[in-house]
Design goal:
The structure is a homodimer. The first copy, chain A, is of the alpha+beta class. The first copy, chain A, is built from seven helices and four strands. Chain A has a four-stranded mixed beta sheet, covered by helices on one side. In chain A, α1 runs parallel beside α3. Chains A and B meet through α3, α4 and α5 of A and α3, α4 and α5 of B.
């Protein structure tokens, strides 16, 4: 297997952290998004959506989209479990993961797209929209702080894929769009510190 | 089981179509989003994210988020299969479903949010941003047309959850944000006609 990756991009990082939690060391090939390398005819034949991550399987099959790759890796390497052990637990974790993806991760990504100078050539940036997305992330972090009361991790008592999505979204927003983890949000800060200190956070 | 639903909203419709394909008739309770009924203290105790759909299980447990509900329903009612029969097929279908959700469904939703008069009180609408999302959906439909060449459905030879997400996103965009299915996109139009004519499309 091989992971088409780009170190600076948040979606591949979700897969890298997921793999690190499983103790997997996936060989990777860097696809430099800043040089348009995910949009070449060669790469579009690998992933017609033109983005990373993509996992190449040993039979040559390509699998794209971070969540699909994560679930597939979990089927091959069930332990430690990150996505749920039975149908109801899987559904609960997916519920939390999707909230993190739609309300936090992709919102932080839109803030980056509309505010960061790196994207000035890529799209027509609308600062007012970008600022609204920063505000939406901060509101979502306050909500998440309340949801974390009395819970060690986002989906419950153990670390799951929902924590990975939230953590990578927050870290990307902090690095690129001025997102802040307010220390006054005590449960969020406690969770953020715990996830940051896991060895996988370096992936 | 009971589905907290709102007929006009696109996310609950994904679950309704999914259930209809399975031959399930879920009792439902309407939560009128236009009257703020998903934001009451009573409803926030059911779903702290304040939205529908929510599936109430027979033991009183609440499960939110359309995809999580769909996967849980599939575990109870495996046939007809809509999400994949083995790990690799599940991953492939999830890849397609996620592309449809992130690039088409949520883009159409943002077009609606920023352009439709119904939302003028709900958020500060940015027409320019809304128009950019309409354009992004149209570009995505051209992409989808190319992806459908030689394929009957989005994830391959049979109808799956990826078709449901794409169809509901398109229908919602057509109804609320001026999205068009251009007849010149022959494969998209062929697929759209086939999915529209399924009995589940009325759900």
């Amino acid at each position: 297997m091989k992971l088409y990756d780009f170190t600076l991009a948040p979606n591949p990082r979700r897969v890298r952290i997921f793999a690190a939690e499983k103790g997997l060391n996936l060989p990777n090939e860097q696809v430099d998004l800043t040089q348009g390398k995910s949009r070449t005819p060669e790469f579009l034949a690998i992933n017609p959506a033109g983005r990373v991550p993509v996992l190449q399987l040993d039979d040559g099959t390509y699998l794209a989209e971070s969540n699909a790759i994560a679930h597939y890796l979990e089927s091959l390497h069930p332990e430690p479990n990150l996505c749920g052990r039975d149908a109801l637990e899987r559904a609960r974790i997916e519920m939390w993961e999707r909230r993190m993806e739609l309300d936090l991760f992709t919102t932080a990504l839109r803030a980056f797209l509309h505010l960061h100078p790196m994207n000035a050539q890529r799209l027509k940036q609308l600062k007012e929209y970008g600022n609204s997305q920063v505000a939406a992330v901060q509101t979502q972090l306050e909500w998440l702080d309340r949801q974390l009361k009395g819970k060690e991790f986002i989906a419950g008592p153990r670390f799951t894929i929902a924590d990975i999505t939230a953590f990578v979204g927050i870290e990307f927003g902090v690095a690129t769009a001025g997102i802040k983890v307010d220390p006054a949000l005590a449960d969020l800060t406690r969770w953020h510190r715990a996830v940051s200190s896991r060895p996988s956070a370096k992936a």
